[in-house]
Amino acid sequence: MALRVAVIVKTNYGGLWTIPQACALRDRGHEVVVICPPGGRLNARLAEAGIRTVASPFSFRFRPGPTTLYELWRLRRLVRRLRVQVLYHHLYAATLAARLATVGLPLVRVQFVAGPAFLESPVVRAVERLLWRLDRAIICGTRYTSHLYRALGVPASRRPAVTSGLDLAWATADLPDDTAATRAEARAKSRADLGLTPDQFLVIMVAYVYPPRKLAAHRDRAFKGHDVLLAAWQDFRSRHPEAVLMLVGGGSDQAGEDHRQDLIRRFHVAEDPSVRWIDTADDVRPHYRAADLSVSPSLSEGHGAPPEAALLDVPSIVSDAGGLPETVDDTCGWVVRRDDPAALARALEDAYAEFRSGRLAERGLRARERSHRHFDNRVSAVRMAEVIEHAAGVGAPPGDYAPPEYAPAPAPEEVSR
Predict the structure, then answer these.
(1) What is the per-residue pLDDT across 324-365, written as a single tens digit (0 to 9) for each?
(2) How far apart are CA 77 and CA 255, in angstroms?
(3) What is the mean pLDDT of residues 250-263?
(4) Are 363 and 380 contained in the same domain?
(5) Phi then psi for 206, rounded to 5 degrees?
(6) Distance separating alpha carbons of residues 58 and 138, to the nearest angstrom
(7) Are residues 387 and 277 in the same domain?
(8) Could you give the C-alpha distances from 12 to 48, 55, 256, 258, in angstroms and in order?
(9) pLDDT single digits (tens) 108-118
(10) What is the three-state SS of 313-360?
(11) Whole-angstrom Cα distance, residue 162 to residue 323?
């Protein structure tokens, strides 16, 4: 039975993980349309994939007043006009809009949770404890997210964990072939372009800089943890002045850029020759290829950068926040306590010792194998399609598609310490 599925997402630039999911639904015979803001990278990429898009009449701003009610009414009219049977919503603002605009309509709602940050807010958790019932299924991008929804009373059958995954071909799409020799040659070129010598240890963090959020569990702190890494680096580089830290990513918006500039001043980055901060790069592959180690020191996170870094043979140090511990094991990375610069500095020392002995590169190869095994978006997109079909009464119950190893993380109340 073919379904009419509308995917609603609040962004027209990010949210690229929706593309393979929409394509998987289409390829299984369903009619798919994506509702999102007009223009931007997402619309262009969806058009290239042959997926229809419709401009959202809702701005995804929840401000008290008649404008918000009018926009929600227009979104409801659009959904009815499209004769939607399944409304598949991504990102929390879109989730709220989808739920509120379609109350009482004869359709099935399915949520995809890309990252758990909103569930670590006490205010949002209180709201979500009531509103999750409006969704037939909640596809959790990490086991950690599923764990948080369990605490809100969601039955296991309605909170399957399925990672959004990655395009495995992306890592070598710019190379003539995918062989060890070609990858080694590309790495040598990337390091030469950056002026690095073979014995220099290069640590990379790829992440936008987000400003502190009012509703975040870590009030007055930016969740990506740049400040944690910069503090740990000052300790580490005092013993290894030849090492280099490369931060790739500008501000997520003007507030994020203001916060980035504040970090540059606070940690004297401009005066530190061991730190290079590159504004947002269109292609991060050359930077990853040059790197020996990736660090994700987040205070809150989904799976983040480690699976992406691993595709380019780069092992990771991750914090114990959110789904990050699911992205590595003890053969290909390290897990350290979040918001603990001293613990991160010790892990950097361990990685540096392996770099000097030549063993760190072996971790990178194992990380690559693990990413291929667990984070293929072609597999996860089909699994999500199966969850959606079952939620709509089509197809058999999906199996257990959870991401890899999971150890229960601290409760959100502990996370916000």
Answers:
(1) 999 999 999 999 999 999 999 999 999 999 999 999 999 999
(2) 34
(3) 94
(4) no
(5) -110, 110
(6) 22
(7) no
(8) 14, 10, 19, 23
(9) 999 999 888 88
(10) CCCEEEECCCCHHHHCCCCCEEEECCCCHHHHHHHHHHHHHHHHHCCH
(11) 12
**Beta strands across the sheet bearing 31-36:** 52-55, 31-36, 4-9, 86-90, 108-113, 137-140
In this structure, what token pair is assigned to residue 358? 């030549």
One domain, residues 232 and 323: yes
65 burial via Cβ count (<10 Å: 0-12, 13-18, 19+)? exposed
Identify whether residues 78 and 209 lie together within a single domain: no
Q: Are 154 and 132 in contact (CB under 8 A)?
A: yes
Q: Are residues 116 and 173 in the same domain?
A: no
Polymer length of the chain: 417
Asked if residue 266 and residue 231 are part of one domain, the reply reads yes
How confident is the model at residue 7, as a pLDDT?
98
Pairing of strands 86-90, 108-113: parallel
Statement to judge: residues 267 and 327 lie in one domain: yes
Q: Is the distance from CB of 322 to CB of 333 less than 8 angstroms?
A: no
CATH code, 156: 3.40.50.2000
Instruction: Band the pLDDT of 400: cuts 50, 70, 90.
Output: low
pLDDT confidence band for 177 (50 / 70 / 90): very high
pLDDT at 341: 98
DSSP 52: E
From the CB of residue 234, how many other CB atoms can be counted at a distance below 10 Å?
17
E strand or H helix that includes residue 410 = none
159 and 179 part of one domain: no
Share of the chain above pLDDT 70, in %: 94
pLDDT tens figures, 39-88:
999 999 999 999 999 999 999 999 888 999 999 999 999 999 999 999 99
The position carrying tokens 């995918």 is 178
Binning pLDDT at 50, 70 and 90, where does residue 212 land?
A: confident
Residue 54 sits in which domain range? 4-165+376-415
Number of domains in the chain: 2
Residues 319, 75: Cα–Cα separation, whole Å: 39
Residue 414: pLDDT over 90: no
